[in-house]
Structure formats: structure tokens, C-alpha cells
Automatic annotation (TrEMBL):
One of its GO terms (biological process) is regulation of transcription by RNA polymerase II. Component of the Mediator complex, a coactivator involved in the regulated transcription of nearly all RNA polymerase II-dependent genes. Mediator functions as a bridge to convey information from gene-specific regulatory proteins to the basal RNA polymerase II transcription machinery. Mediator is recruited to promoters by direct interactions with regulatory proteins and serves as a scaffold for the assembly of a functional preinitiation complex with RNA polymerase II and the general transcription factors. One of its GO terms (cellular component) is core mediator complex. Transmembrane segments: none annotated. InterPro entries: Mediatior_Med8_fun/met (IPR019364). It comes from Saimiri boliviensis boliviensis (Bolivian squirrel monkey). Residues 218-235 have a biased composition (Polar residues). This is Mediator of RNA polymerase II transcription subunit 8. Component of the Mediator complex, which is composed of MED1, MED4, MED6, MED7, MED8, MED9, MED10, MED11, MED12, MED13, MED13L, MED14, MED15, MED16, MED17, MED18, MED19, MED20, MED21, MED22, MED23, MED24, MED25, MED26, MED27, MED29, MED30, MED31, CCNC, CDK8 and CDC2L6/CDK11. The MED12, MED13, CCNC and CDK8 subunits form a distinct module termed the CDK8 module. Mediator containing the CDK8 module is less active than Mediator lacking this module in supporting transcriptional activation.
Amino acid sequence: VQREEKQLEASLDALLSQVADLKNSLGSFIYKLENEYDRLTWPSVLDSFALLSGQLNTLNKVLKHEKTPLFRNQVIIPLVLSPDRDEDLMRQTEGRVPVFSHEVVPDHLRTKPDPEVEEQEKQLTTDAARIGADAAQKQIQSLNKMCSNLLEKISKEERESESGGLRPNKQTFNPTDTNALVAAVAFGKGLSNWRPSGSSGPGQPGQPGAGTILAGTSGLQQVQMAGAPSQQQPMLSGVQMAPTGQPGKIPSGIKTNIKSASMHPYQR
């Protein structure tokens, strides 16, 4: 019996120590939120949450330890009940419980939760019982797989960002080729006048080139009617324009098909 009592006292001391640390951290975080919200940064908030999460995990480990007895099996019996104010109780409870009377004992010593909380717990237990063991195991495996993939992607992004920051950016172009391309476009440097042997120039016979077309086009003349020196005679469709008798002009073999854009004033 003495061994169990000592083990219970040691477990209670460890539990009280963890709860006190958690209480101090939570109070400090609440104070920052209420009084230092204008200077509060997001990394400091995350650090506070990480600290609280770590302390809660430590508290759960203490409760689940094999040497920790089950506190739910322990029965607490109040030895003294008094309606008078107790200063020692005020000091131990930090002013939260001034008296230990018949009115406050059921609230502070009860082991069952509120009826609303108990009803919600029953509902959650019922919903969990509806899922079969195989379905629950599949859901757990699927969730673990998703979490593993997400963590792997995050780790990969962190490694790539760190490696990219350490090594310089790799050059993706050749400066020599770039300079040669700019010189060729701007100054024609490095370009050759080579022409395929099968292509015929504009002056070769049987191949009407650009020179012939330009010469024939420039040979178009304006023919004026007699008695109307200021009016231009309309071009007749299908008439071959051959500028004969002009030195330096090559007769063009192009037939023109030009129609007047407006009605001629002398047309009847």
C-alpha cells in the first residue's frame, strides 16, 4: 500500500509540474495577444503554438506512462467543508476558490463532464462504431499516405531552394552565338552571297523576272482624247499595253485588266 501511495504521489507531482508549465506558457501567450498584438509577428505566434503543443504532448506521455496509475480509479473524499473563507485555499487556487462549501464541492470534485459534452461524446462514439475495422484502417492508411506525400514535397522544395541559393544560376545561352547573331542581323557580318545553281536570274530568257515586270509596269502611258486634254482616257479591259518607240524600254508581255473606278464623263 505504501508503495502505491508513493507512486501515486510521484505521479501527481510530475503531473502538477507539467500542468504548471503549460499554464505559464498559456498565460504568457494570452498576455501577448491582449497587450502586444501590435508588435506581434507571425513567427512568434507559431513558436508559441509549437511550445504549447510540445507541452501537451509531454503531459499526455506522463498520463499514458506505464508507471502512472489510473487516476479515474481514485476516489476523492472531502475531509472538511466550511462556508467560511479560507485564505490558504485562496492562495493555492490563486484566488479562484475562496471557500470550500457544499455548493462548490460538486462542481470542483465531479468526475463526469457536462451533460452537453457527454452527449456529444456519445454521438462521436456511436459514429465511430459504425465504421468497420477494415474501412477505418483504409482511411488511416490513405491519410498517412497523403501526409507522407505532402511532407516529401515540402522537403523537396526546401532542398531545392537551399541548393539554388548556394550555387550560382546556370547560364542557359552562349554569348559567342548571341554576338554572332547580332552582328549578322545588324551589319551583315558572316553572311554569304551564295545562290542555288538551279535558280534563274531576272535577266535570263524565258523567265520574266522582277526587272521585266517593273519595266512593263513603268511603260504604262496615259492616252488623252482629242478635244479633252485635261481628261484621262479610261483603260480598256484586255488591251495589251506595249510602249513602242521609247528608247531604253523593254516591251512587256503582261496584259493589263484595269477598269475605271468611276463613271467616265464621256461615256454614253
